[in-house]
Design brief:
- The chain is an alpha/beta fold.
- The protein has three domains: 158 residues, P-loop containing nucleotide triphosphate hydrolases (Rossmann fold, 3-Layer(aba) Sandwich); 83 residues; 188 residues, 3-Layer(aba) Sandwich (Rossmann fold), CATH 3.40.50.
- It is 44% helix and 13% strand.
- It is built from 20 helices and 16 strands.
- The strands form three sheets. The protein has a seven-stranded parallel β-sheet, with helices on both faces. Strands 11-16-15-12-14-13 form a six-stranded parallel β-sheet.
- Helix 16 links the parallel strand 13 and strand 14.
- The radius of gyration is 26 Å and the shape is globular.
- The two termini are 42 Å apart.
Length: 524
């Protein structure tokens, strides 16, 4: 049965067996399934075929594929073998509104119409008014721009298909996604708890009294409701002054403010829900409400679903629920093509790192010289990356990309990917979401274990006290395993990973059970 839903000529080892096992678990009534599939094991294809089977053979009305990694959704959207049967719908901010212009750029979430039909019937006149004010003649192609709305084109495909893909933020916030969904697949689910917790985080305004939080937040919600009512009056007046032009700049600005206020109300109501149900939380020094455990949010998300599949090569399902079954696929890449070497240079804790960094810089240069190609270096902390760069030789600095600006993450990544010749990338927070495949990327270095900052981050400290450091150690193990897989992406690929932080020895000794067998097999 499953073969006819495979867009490729055949399955690779382990894929068909994993899909069959998941179907057997679904048939037995199991709701939450963990798909433990390492790099190159073909998770995306497994989920695609499973989704096709559930929608076509099991008759499920809506099966949705999602992931916390937006880049992965974009990749699926560009894969014609997948998107013909699994239409991809991205967030509205990814779609330009054709009624905008260079002076007032607009996006799909600025659309003033409740339905696509309303937009089609109204946009012709609105566009004519807009062009008339500019004193220009309308071209025929400009008369009905909404009919070519890129968002609505993707949305229609997504809505009518029994199987589709969307971003996780879109799934959580859009009732048209989650209300009709029967089966949800979360690819790269290791970051799911963090995503769920972020959706329950609220910066409390000064008017909220943290000593009587529930009553004060409820009063704040009442204030927000009155703001929305007032804004709706302003919106109606602005439309009238603009002769009904829904695309007039002031009309658009008020509409954005209404939606922003409604989004704040949504978060406040989430906070009230968690307070009422006595879910553990903290208010940090920045006056942020921060939920401590993701289990309650996962339970809410999955309550009305028939099936939830959490897929990752480094799964963290135990952080979300205790009631699940795991399906495992063996690593398809030979161990000798993805070896991980522990070669300690020194301690990188805050007391010792200044002494260690000069030797670390020398070792990076020495390892890079083995291949003279593109070397990925995971520094974990911006200050460490900058300090290593300062201790490099002048020749090494000339070929090094230092990730120095937190706001330009994509810029540094693309610079590294597009660069010709040899390069060293001193990177921060690229343990996942980056495919460095092919012969240009044979070297991968971890100079600092990606520990969270439990001294300055009140959430991390409170969570450690609550769960005995389980999440803290789990996330560290996951990030190291994810980082080690950045440069070996297919069975024919090859790379070496070097862990230079002395802390690794002690971490493994205490947390070996958190490391996947495929990773331990490659560790030297």
């Amino acid at each position: 049965m499953i073969n006819k839903y495979n867009p490729y000529p055949s399955f690779q080892a382990g894929q068909a067996e994993a899909i069959t096992q998941m179907l057997d678990l679904i048939d037995s009534g199991k709701k939450v399934i963990e798909l433990n599939a390492p790099t190159a094991a073909g998770k995306s294809l497994d989920l695609f075929v499973l989704g096709r089977v559930l929608s076509m053979e099991y008759g499920m009305d809506k099966v949705i594929y999602t992931t916390p990694l937006v880049a992965l959704v974009n990749q699926l959207g560009s894969n014609e073998l997948f998107n013909k049967k699994m239409p991809v719908l991205k967030g509205k901010r990814n779609y330009p509104c054709l009624m905008g212009d260079e002076n007032m750029p607009m996006w799909a979430d600025d659309c003033p119409f409740d339905t696509f039909g309303d937009a089609l019937s109204a946009c012709a006149q609105a566009n004519r008014d807009k062009v008339a004010l500019q004193g220009k003649r309308l071209a025929v192609d400009d008369e009905r721009p909404c009919i070519d709305c890129p968002y609505q084109k993707d949305r229609v495909k997504f809505v009518v298909s029994p199987f589709g893909a969307t971003t996780f933020d879109r799934y959580i916030l859009d009732p048209s996604c989650w209300k009709n969904c029967e089966a949800l697949f979360v690819d790269e689910s290791a970051g799911l708890e963090k995503k769920l917790l972020n959706h329950s985080t609220l910066k409390l305004p000064e008017q909220v009294d943290t000593k009587r939080l529930q009553q004060s937040v409820a009063a704040y919600v009442d204030d927000l409701e009155r703001q929305v009512e007032s804004l709706n009056v302003d919106y109606a007046n602005a439309k009238q002054r603009a002769n009904g032009n829904l695309f007039a700049p002031k009309v658009v600005r008020i509409r954005r403010e209404i939606r922003s206020t409604e989004a704040e109300m949504y978060k406040c109501n989430k906070v009230l829900y968690h307070i009422e149900h006595e879910h553990p939380y903290i208010i940090d020094r920045e006056r942020q409400f921060r939920l401590l455990l993701g289990k309650s949010e996962f339970e809410r998300m999955s309550k009305d679903l028939k099936v939830v599949v959490l897929a990752s090569g480094t799964p963290t399902t135990r952080l979300l629920t205790d009631d699940y079954e795991s399906v495992k696929i063996q690593h398809p890449i030979a161990v000798d093509r993805r070896l991980v070497y522990y070669t300690p240079v020194g301690s990188m804790n805050w007391q010792s790192r200044n002494k260690t960094i000069p030797a670390m810089a020398d070792e990076i240069e020495r390892l890079h010289a083995k291949y003279h190609k593109k070397t990925m270096v995971h520094c974990s902390v911006y200050a460490i990356a900058a300090a290593i760069y300062e201790k490099m030789s002048l020749a090494a600095r000339k070929i090094t990309i230092l990730q120095a600006d937190k706001t330009k993450r994509e810029h540094y990544k693309n610079y590294f990917l597009d660069a010709t010749g040899e390069r060293i990338f001193l990177s921060i927070d690229f343990c996942e979401g980056l495919d460095l495949k092919g012969p240009d990327y044979p070297m991968n270095i971890i100079v600092k274990l990606p520990f969270e900052n439990f001294k300055d981050d009140e959430f991390v400290a409170a969570r450690n006290e609550m769960d005995g450091w389980m999440r803290y150690n789990t996330n560290t193990a996951v990030n190291v395993m994810q980082a080690s897989g950045r440069c070996t992406r297919s069975p024919n690929d090859f790379s070496e990973t070097y862990i230079l932080d002395e802390s690794w020895r002690y971490f493994v000794r205490r947390n070996r059970k958190l490391l996947e067998p495929w990773f331990l097999a490659a560790l030297r």
